[in-house]
Fold:
Amino acid sequence: MIKSLRWRLQLWHALLLTTVLIIFGGVVYALQWQTRLQQADAELDRVASVLTSRLRGLFPVPRSPNPGPWRPPSRGPGSSRPPEQTEDRGSPLIADALLPANVPLPVPPPWLIARPRDDDQNDARRRESRGQQRGGSREEGNRGGRNDQARDGQRSNAPEPSRDGANNGPRDPRDPSRWFSPAPGLGLPEEFTHLFEGDEHSFYFIIWDKNGTVLEKSKSVEDIPFPDLHTQADGLPVRQARMRDMQREVIHVSRFDINVLVGRSLIPDLAALHRTAFRLVLTGLGVLSIGLAGGWWFSSRAIRPIAEMSAIAESISVKNLSTRINVSSTATELEQLGTVLNRTFDRLQSAFERQGQFTADASHELRTPVAVILSHAELALSRPRAVGDYQNTIQACRRAALRMKTLIDSLLLLARFDSGEPEIELRPVELDRLVVDAVEMLQPLADERHVKLSCRAEPMTIDADHDRLFQVLTNLLSNAIRYNKPDGRVDVDVTSDEHSAIIRVVDTGVGIPADELQHVFNRFYRVDKARTTAEGGCGLGLSICQTIVDAHHGSINAFSELNVGTTIEVRLPLVQISPEPGVQSDASDNVDTATSLTAASGR
Amino acid sequence: MRVLIVEDEPDLQRVVWTCLQEEGYVVDAASDGEEGLYKAANWDYDVIVLDVMLPKLDGWQVLARLRKLKATPVLMLTARDTVHDRVKGLDAGADDYLVKPFQLAELLARLRALIRRAAGQSQPVIEIGDTHIDTVSRTVTRIGSLIPLTAMEYSLVELLALHRGKLVTRSMIYDKLYDEDDDTLSNLVDVHVSNIRRKLGHEFITTRRGQGYMIND
Structure:
C-alpha cells in the first residue's frame, strides 16, 4: 500500500504541510512573545518614567552636570558606559527627551526647600477639601493605608533605613532621601498606585540612590540586588531592560544615579501565550486534516486516469487489439501519455496485422504445392498404375516440392534480414561482369518468351555481396521477361554517377497502374492477384530485392507507364562507407538459394 | 455427370481431371477465369469446381457473373481458410467450399452431394422399384444381386434416375456424358440404352421416340 503512488503523494503532502504549519506556528508564537514583551516593556517604561518624572519634579537638577547643549544620545565609542549597561539607551525616556539640558530648569521653589513637607501639606489640603465633602471616612482610609504600609514594613524583614533617616535626618534639600520621607513618599496618584497593589503578578518598583540605599519600593517587592547603574558622562539617562527569572524589569537611571526599577511578572503573559499556542496547535491540526483530505481527493482525482489507462492497457492482447484509451483532448500530461500509448497500440496492431497477413500469405502460398503433392499421391495410390503414370505423378510432386523450397528459401532469407543481421559479405564486385552473367543465365527464358534481352554496362567495381546482388539481378530480369509482351524487349543499363552505380532494368510490358506502384515491393503483393501462380513466383521477388539493396545502403525504385513498360532502378553506393563487419555468410547456401530460385523461375 | 474444373495450377488441374474422369465424370477444364466463365455459361454442367485465385478473372468474379445466368452448383477451391473467406464464398453464391490442400475423396464426396442436392435428391442411394442405385459406390443392385454395368452405362442410369419421372433429352445426355473432346456418334447412346435394357429389363427405360429417354417413377 505504502508503495502506491497515491500514498507516497499523500505522505509527502503531509510532511510538507506539517513543516509549513510548524514553521508558521513557531513564527506566530515568537512574534506573540515579542509583542507581549514589548507591551510589558512599554508599560514598565511608562510607569518608570512617571516615577522618574515625579522624582525630577521633587528634586531639581543642578545646572553644572549638563553644561553642553542637548544632543541625541549616541552609542558612539565615546560612551563611557560599558556596553551591557547602555544596551537600551537608544530609547531615552520621553520625559527626559522633552527636557533638553540647555533649557534652564526652574530652581526648586523655596517652599520645597523650606518646607519639604509641601506635598504632604498639599495632600492634606486636598484631603481636607475632600474630607469636607465626604466626611471623615477618607481620613480613616488614608490612615488605614498608612497602617498597612507600616505593617508591610514590619512584615518584610528588610529594614528601611532611608525612611527612618529621612524622618530624622537633616533637612537638606539636596539629599534625595529627604523628599521621600515620610510616607506617602512620591505622592503618586491613587489610580497609579493601584498598579502596585494586587496579586504577585502585578507591578512592583524599587528606587535606590547611588549608594544602593532603597529610597522607596512597592509593597510586594522582594529583595532585589542593587543594579548599581550610573548615568552617562554627559548626564543622559540610562535605561536597561532585563529578565530576572520570569520577571521583566526596566531600570531607569536618572540624575544623581538614582536607579528606578519597575518590574512585573510575565507569568500571566506566558499563560496567555500558552493559550494562544494551544489554539495555534488546534488550528494547525484542523488545517492539516483539511489539507490531507483535500490532498487525498486531489491525488485520487489525478490518479484515476492512470488506473483507467492501466486497465485498458491490460485488456489489450492479441485477441483484442482495437481497444484504445479514451483521450478527449491533449491538454494534460496524462492525456498526452494516453495519446502516446494509443499510438503505440496502433503500431502494435498494424504490426500484428502485417504479421498475420504475412503468415496467411505464406501459408496460402504453401497450400497449393501441398495440395498438388497430396492429391497426386492419393490418385496414384488409389489403384495400380502404369509406369508412365507414376513418373508423371513423381514429376508433379517434384515441381511442387521445388516451388515450396523456393518459397521457404525466400521466407528464410527475409526472416534473416528482418532479424537485423544482414548476412551480406562485401567484396569488390565487377558489376558489368555480374550483369552480363545474369543476362546470359536468363537468355533461355527470354528466348522461350520471345523477348529480346539486351545489356549495356560500363565497366565498374563496387563493394557488394556478389551472390545477393546476382539474386537481385536475376529476380528483376525474370520479372521483366515474364511480364513482358510477346516480342517485347528488356534492356539492362548500368551507369554511374558521382556516388552510386545505377542499374536500370527496362521492360516493354503492360506496366503497373500508378496506384499499385507503391505496393510492388510489399511482400506477397501482386499486381494481378493470381497471375503468377502458373509462373512459379510467389510474390516475394521484389521485396527480396528491396531487402538486399537496403542491406547494401542502396535504393530501389519502380517507374511505370501503362502499356508502355516498367523501369526498375537500383542505386548502389560505389564504396560502402561503413563496411559492415558482417556475419560470414554460407556461400554455398547463397549460391544454392540463387540457383534454385532461378531454376524454379526458369520453368 | 459433367464437371468443369477451373484451376490455373496445371498439376492440380490435371490430377483433379484424372481423378474425376476415373470416377466416371465427364470433365472439362479451364485455366483462367475468362475461359471458365465462358464454358460455364455455354454448357450445362452438373457441378463446377472453381479455384479462387485465377488469372484474368478471379473466382469471385466468375461466380458473380455466372450467378446472373445460371444456378449451376459451384464448389469453391481455395487456399484461404479463415471464417471470413468461407463466409464470403458462401455469401457470394458458392454451394460448397473446400480448402487446399484437400483429399480427393473429400472432393468427390462433396461433388456427389452437390449433384444430388441439385437434382432434388438427398439420399446417396436411389431406389426405383426393386432396383437400388448407389451413387457412392457407383453400383446398381437388383434384389441384392449386383448388376454389372460399364462406367458409361452406369452414368446413363444415374442420370436418368436422378431425373426420374422427367424426360432426359438426347442433347442433355450428350452434354452430361461426353466431354468436349469426345466426338462420339449419336447412336452410341442407343447402344448403351439397349445394353442397359438387356441387363435391367426392357421396361426400365422408356423411350420417347425422337425426344429422349426417361425412367418412370
